Amino acid sequence: MTTTLQLVLIVSAVLFSIGLLAALSRRHAIFILIGIEMMLAAANLNFVAFWRFAPQPQPPTGVMVAIFAIAIAAAEAAVGLALVIAVYRHYRSTNVDELDQLKG
User: Fold this and answer.
1) pLDDT (tens digit, 0 to 9) for every residue of the chain, 104 residues total?
2) Rounded CA separation 84/45 (Å)
3) Residue in 49, 52, 45, 48 with CA at minimum distance from that of residue 16
4) pTM of the full structure
5) Buried b (16+ CB within 10 A) or exposed e, 37-69
């Protein structure tokens, strides 16, 4: 079976939908971060797929954008997990419904 652009985009849409569902329906901050990471992975898959199925004499811009997005996602995960740990130490819970007491 040959891989087509349509098949890759369907897989990416399914992955994005699962990530969106996980980010919107969960109550724990860790699962929300996992959902966001899944959505970023789907976007990276789109970048690489459109680069791969473009006319061949193209520079690898899709791969470079995906690598940059992976670096940004790693920084986002580090900051997000640090925030989750700080909130957990204060409230002893990662339930986002209980975080309404945070004042800025």
Assistant:
1) 678 999 999 999 999 999 999 999 988 888 999 999 999 999 999 999 999 888 877 788 889 999 999 999 999 999 989 988 988 888 888 888 777 766 65
2) 27
3) 45
4) 0.83
5) bbbbbbbbbbbbbbbeeeeeeeeeebeebbeeb
User: Among all chains, which residue has been given the structure tokens 């970048």?
Assistant: 47
Give the contacts of 85 (CB within 8 A, at least 6 positions apart): none
Q: Among all chains, which residue has been given the structure tokens 């976007």?
A: 43
Q: What is the 3-state secondary structure (H, E, C) of 35-92?
A: HHHHHHHHHHHHHHHHHHCCCCCCCCHHHHHHHHHHHHHHHHHHHHHHHHHHHHHHHC
The answer to whether 51 and 58 have CB atoms below 8 angstroms apart is yes
Q: Which two tokens stand for residue 37?
A: 């990471």
58 half-sphere exposure, CB direction, 13 A CA radius = 14
Domains and CATH numbers, the chain: 5-99 (1.10.287.3510)
Rg of the chain taking only CA atoms, in angstroms: 17
